[in-house]
Amino acid sequence: MPLHMSVSVSRTSGESLTSQIQKFIREEIETGILRPGTRLPASRRLAEDLSVARSVVVDAYGQLTAEGYLESRQGAGTRVVHHLPQQSVVPVLLDNGREPAVRWDLRTGGANTLPFPHTVWLTAYQRALQDSGRGHDYPPLAGEAVLRGELARLLGRWHGVRAAPGKIVVVGGFAQGLGLLCTALREAGLEEVAVEDPGHPGQRRFITDSGMRTVAVPVDEEGLDVGALAATSARVVLVTPAHQFPLGVTLSERRRQELVEWARDTDSWIVEDDYDGGLWYARTPRPLALQRLAPERVVYAGTASKLLGPGLRLGWLAAPDELLDGILHAKVRQDLGTESFTQLAFAELLRSGLFDRHVRRLAKTASSRREVLEDAVRRHLPGAEVLGAAAGLHAYVRLPRKVDEAAVVAGALRRSVLVRGGAGFHSGPTRDAPALVVGHAHLPRVGVAQATEEIAAAVTAR
Ligand SMILES: Cc1ncc(COP(=O)(O)O)c(C=O)c1O
């Protein structure tokens, strides 16, 4: 039984001690250094060895227990579990690993979307089946013509995207779109993709699993730091310009121009991930798509995951001619085309105007949750602020500097609120202020208010 464990922690890295201990132990377990069943030192002893408060270690152990790495039993101490969480089979874009059941789940992505419009979908699906008289054959590789036409109109109307139907490829969600793009770009000789930092941790993994390297580029309140991007050797960048994930900020006009200039000057590619496009309820108008500024350099990517449901696995790319062939070649090797009936039903939803109506309703719901969140943060979390545009399904809540983010996340979990801290969205240790990434739109209003109060209690309990 190890009564002592040497954990390396730094007091100058800017990362909280809880988070450092957590990461250290997680890595030791994942790499097999700490074997299943190994008993960890008592929290008091480890805290003494590291000269930290005992609560720091308790919180780190608590979070690792919640993640399924450790188990603790009265009298038996805390041990490494015998069966580790099966990370390899969890789809990398998702945040839906093994978690305890909680009252309020504020994670983004996964099933935490707004309710699926069953009746509307059923009507569209029935019409699609009746009208098409098809479905028994392989779908056209780039997608059903009727859907590509509807998408070209919708994206032009909503976001100013300039793409003829022939430039659009229907894909199995952004996940497949990104995979196809990585394949096409790699085959064109490119090896690196610049990604936003903070950004989507699943996307970083997804890119590296596709055989490319990621290069982290910082994001500030104007969005991606284009100067920092230009200083890298990357010739591809993945950005979320309308509503940066996770900060929620919008890429400023100045940075948009700089980014497009960079792409043109260096023959680089911009991948515009418009993951929650259409869910905009800020008072200021939504900026038009970046793609509009440089259709020859930007791949615009959209998805039905946030607007309808991730279960449909439906997304679309509007790509420059130079990349279209590579994308289609990659797709033919993967799946011979996206499933037809879903495409036809979605086209019917777009054609009939039901989709517009549905999205207007979603935006209203999401907007009311955001209002509750802003109000609750103002009242219960002094010094915190909700960052970025009122849009999409989540918000980024920046906490006061003195707050220990990992401890708040662990404290919230003890109060039955599952929320992610901002640190996990960074590609390495960060000096950014502590923060929470709050998926709010899927909760009832009372849930947003209660969850915020529990978080506030976790902050003040320190
Ligand atoms: C930043 C971001 N991009 C894209 C997606 C959508 O991926 P998909 O269309 O594969 O569901 C998500 C979903 O969670 C996301 O968070």
From TrEMBL:
<dbReference type="InterPro" id="IPR015421">
    <property type="entry name" value="PyrdxlP-dep_Trfase_major"/>
</dbReference>
<keyword id="KW-0804">Transcription</keyword>
<feature type="domain" description="HTH gntR-type">
    <location>
        <begin position="15"/>
        <end position="83"/>
    </location>
</feature>
<keyword id="KW-0032">Aminotransferase</keyword>
<keyword id="KW-0663">Pyridoxal phosphate</keyword>
<dbReference type="GO" id="GO:0003700">
    <property type="term" value="F:DNA-binding transcription factor activity"/>
</dbReference>
<dbReference type="GO" id="GO:0030170">
    <property type="term" value="F:pyridoxal phosphate binding"/>
</dbReference>
<dbReference type="InterPro" id="IPR051446">
    <property type="entry name" value="HTH_trans_reg/aminotransferase"/>
</dbReference>
<dbReference type="InterPro" id="IPR000524">
    <property type="entry name" value="Tscrpt_reg_HTH_GntR"/>
</dbReference>
<comment type="similarity">
    <text>In the C-terminal section; belongs to the class-I pyridoxal-phosphate-dependent aminotransferase family.</text>
</comment>
<keyword id="KW-0805">Transcription regulation</keyword>
<protein>
    <submittedName>
        <fullName>PLP-dependent aminotransferase family protein</fullName>
    </submittedName>
</protein>
<dbReference type="InterPro" id="IPR004839">
    <property type="entry name" value="Aminotransferase_I/II_large"/>
</dbReference>
<dbReference type="InterPro" id="IPR036390">
    <property type="entry name" value="WH_DNA-bd_sf"/>
</dbReference>
<dbReference type="InterPro" id="IPR036388">
    <property type="entry name" value="WH-like_DNA-bd_sf"/>
</dbReference>
<dbReference type="GO" id="GO:0008483">
    <property type="term" value="F:transaminase activity"/>
</dbReference>
<keyword id="KW-0808">Transferase</keyword>
<dbReference type="InterPro" id="IPR015424">
    <property type="entry name" value="PyrdxlP-dep_Trfase"/>
</dbReference>
<dbReference type="GO" id="GO:0003677">
    <property type="term" value="F:DNA binding"/>
</dbReference>
<dbReference type="Pfam" id="PF00392">
    <property type="entry name" value="GntR"/>
</dbReference>
<dbReference type="Pfam" id="PF00155">
    <property type="entry name" value="Aminotran_1_2"/>
</dbReference>
<keyword id="KW-0238">DNA-binding</keyword>
